[in-house]
Amino acid sequence: MNSLPDGRVVTDPDVIDSYARDRTFVEPGKPLGVVLATSRDDVVTTMTWATEHRVPIVPRGAGSGLAGAATAGDGSVILSLAKMTAIREISPADEIAVVEPGVITADLDRAAREHGLMYAPDPSSYEISTIGGNLATNAGGLRCVKYGVTRDSTLGLEVVLADGRILDTGRRTMKGVTGYDLTGLFVGSEGTLGVITAATVRLRHAPAAPPATFAAEFGSLRDAGAAVSAIMAAGCQPSLMELLDRATLEAIDDWRNIGLEPSTHAMLIGQSDGTDGQAVAERMERLCMDNGASFVAVSSSPQETEELIGLRRMAYQAKERLGACLVEDVCVPRSVLPDMIGAIEAAAARHGVKICTVAHAGDGNLHPVFIFEHGMVEPPPEVWAAADEVFTHALELGGTLTGEHGVGLLKQRWLALESGPVAAEVQRGIKAVFDPLGILNPGKAIQPRSETVA
């Protein structure tokens, strides 16, 4: 890679180590070095060289992923896109933005709001995660119950393929069905099909007034789950609907002293950002009371709203203080959310494992976080056993192994349970078309041939 400008390639072992892992416990291999790309040309040069020398490339953004997708393997080169931070264009007339992959998600949203618009996807890590990482995993977030996941806000991509060719997918228009949907294919592909160097994303009108927010406390998770089902069945269309269990609330309380009551075993936080937001929030308040809430309050100021949403966003950091975390994100149909919650509680009790659960409850996406001792190379057997039960039950309920974090390395062991042999073979065929040498983030996202279901 001598053709890259000075300073782009880093081989110092300590610096390499800081780029070699994501936010999981997964130990990386020994990569050869790091490329700090600042432009599409840097990516093209890197991929052309990698194809010529058959060297694996591991693309990464901020490293905030929770599935091991950005974990570097032996003999690989890490391709960091974090320095590609340009917001190339914001078009209020067309309600779109063109951005590079290193743009922080919250920064794009703030830039859009200067024009009365917003970027809707908002993962909990939105202040540190990048647009490129969000695209790679098809990230969701707190507002996805109303606005959808990252794919729903992605119109087109600029992608550097494995051999260095540049592919433009999609469009700048809100509609378009020319050819196969290559944009949708790359979103969620975890860097296994190409390296995204720019994206055209959809912006939406920001709400004219701050959203109306409520918080409800429940004596059980099942009651909270039933309240979610009632709210969604009533057609309230919340813009946010988040559930926190007792173990998560205790972790936050130990850290920030939020005054958690002994009788509170679950908290539901919801928002409505429509023009009738206050009336909708009050309706959701009544439905919570009808389904067993011991206390419900509707916020009276933007400051109270920020405090409630901040409570949800600090959940993962609070759990990291307790130990190492195996973070999962099963998704089930909303109608069976209470059943899934019960299964998680039963698995924790049966195996003696601490599980802290939060959920994007409005779309059935649960994040059970399995806590184990810091310093362990991987979770102990009882954690894997509890996780097996949780995943198996989610699939039995018609759900999926991952709603937004992606497969990475951590979910490889369960892929065969969901995809089946035909889907696995088709996905490997797609991989071979875009990456015939298998150099792009090998071993991630899809089921290896050796694990095909018989």
UniProtKB/TrEMBL annotation:
Record-stated family: Belongs to the FAD-binding oxidoreductase/transferase type 4 family.
- Which chain positions lie within coiled-coil regions? none
This protein's name: FAD-binding protein
Source organism of the structure: Nonomuraea cypriaca
Against PROSITE patterns, the record matches this protein to: FAD_PCMH
The answer to whether keyword Cell inner membrane applies is no
Q: InterPro entries under this entry?
A: FAD-bd_oxidored_4_C (IPR004113), FAD-bd_PCMH (IPR016166), FAD-bd_PCMH-like_sf (IPR036318), FAD-bd_PCMH_sub2 (IPR016169), FAD-linked_Oxase-like_C (IPR016164), FAD-linked_OxidoTrans_Type4 (IPR051914), Oxid_FAD_bind_N (IPR006094), Vanillyl_alc_oxidase_C-sub2 (IPR016171)
What UniProt keywords are attached to this protein's entry? FAD, Flavoprotein, Oxidoreductase
Which SUPFAM superfamilies has this protein been placed in?
FAD-binding/transporter-associated domain-like (SSF56176), FAD-linked oxidases, C-terminal domain (SSF55103)
Which domain of life does the UniProt lineage start with? Bacteria
The major lineage groups are:
Bacteria, Bacillati, Actinomycetota, Actinomycetes, Streptosporangiales
Question: A GO molecular-function term, please?
Answer: oxidoreductase activity
Q: Which residues form the FAD-binding PCMH-type domain?
A: 27-206
Q: Which cofactor does it need?
A: FAD
